Amino acid sequence: MVWAFNPAVWYVSSWWGQIGALYILPMWLGVAAAVKERWWWAGWWLAVSILVKPMGVVVAPVIGLWAWRRGIGWAVGVRRWGEIVVGGLVVMGVVLWPWWAVGQLGLMVKRVRALAGNQLFLTMNAHNGWFAVSGGRGSFAARMEGAWLDNEPLLLGLTGWTIGLGLLVGWSVVVMYFIWKRESDEAWQAWWGAAALVFGFFMLPTEAHERYLLPVLALSLPLLPLGRVWWWWYGLVSATLFLNLWWVDAAISMAWFERQLGWGTAISWVNVGLFLFLGKEIASLWGRVTIQTVTSKE
C-alpha cells in the first residue's frame, strides 16, 4: 500500500513512463531471497534486475555478504556464493544466448559500457550531493549557463567523476563493514544495507539521474516497522523524489519552481540530511561494535 499509493511512484511510472519498477521488483526479490537464504533464487532475481537495467548490480554486495555471513566456515560460504552465481548465470545465459548466436553479444556489451561516463555533468538533474555543493551549477539544467562538468579537475587534479567514484566505493566499504561486524543477523540489516548502497549510488557518483532514488523507496519498506522515525524518513524521501521529478518535468507548469536552481539546491540539501541519517545509523553501529570489542577484550 505504501508503495502502490506513493505519489512519487505514480509520477515516475505513469507520468514519465519510466521502467523503474521493472528492475526494482527483481532487485527487491533478490534481497528478499537472500534474507530467506534462498541463494539460487537470489542470484536468479539479481540477474533479472541487472538485465533490465545494469543499476540492479548495486545491491549485489549485500546479497553476497549476507550469503557469506549466514554461513559457517569457508566451505559453506563458497557453496552459497556458487548457488548465487549459478542462478545468475542460468538467467544470463538464457536471455543473452540469442545475441551470442548471431555474433552481436560483444557489440551489446560495448554499448552498455558506453552508457557510463559519457554524460559529463556532475548531476543529470538528480538533487543529490553534487547538486547541493555546486548550487545546481553542475546540473544538466544549468548546461546553457556553463555547467560544471565531471571530466574537469575539481580537487587536487582529480575530476568530479573520479572523486564521485571514490566516494561511492568508500561508502560501500563502510556499509559492508558494519553489516559484517554486527554480531546478530537480523533481516533489517540486509534491507538497510541495500537501501544505503542505492541511496549512495544516487548521492555520491556524478551523472546520476533523479529517478535513481526510486529503488530506495522499495528497499526501505521493511525498515518501517522499526519505528516512527523511519516513517518520517520514508515520507521525506518520497517527498524529495516527487519534488525532484516535478522540478525536472512538471505536470502543471510552474515557472517559479521548475528548473530553478535555488529550489533544486534546497531539495538537494534535504536529501543530504536524509543521507546523513543513514550515516548516523552507521555511527550507532560503530558504537555497538566498539563496546562489543572492548567487552570481549576484558
Structure description:
This protein is mainly alpha-helical. It has twelve helices and four strands. The strands form two sheets. A two-stranded parallel sheet has the order 1-4. Strands 2-3 form a two-stranded antiparallel ribbon. Helix 2 packs antiparallel against helix 3 and helix 2 (20-35) packs parallel to helix 4. The longest helix is centred in the C-terminal third of the chain and has 37 residues, at 261-297. The chain is globular. Residues 289-298 have low confidence and may be disordered.
> Major sheet, described briefly?
2 strands, parallel
Computed over alpha carbons, the radius of gyration is: 20 Å
Share of helix among residues? 55-70%
**Termini Cα gap:** 49 Å
Shape: globular
Write down the oligomeric state: single chain
Number of helices: 12
N-to-C series of helices and strands: HHHHHHEHEEHHEHHH
**Average residue pLDDT:** 88
Extended strand count: 4
Beta percentage is: under 5%
- Which class do the helix and strand fractions yield? mainly alpha
| Spatial ordering of strands, largest sheet | 1-4
Low-confidence regions: 289-298
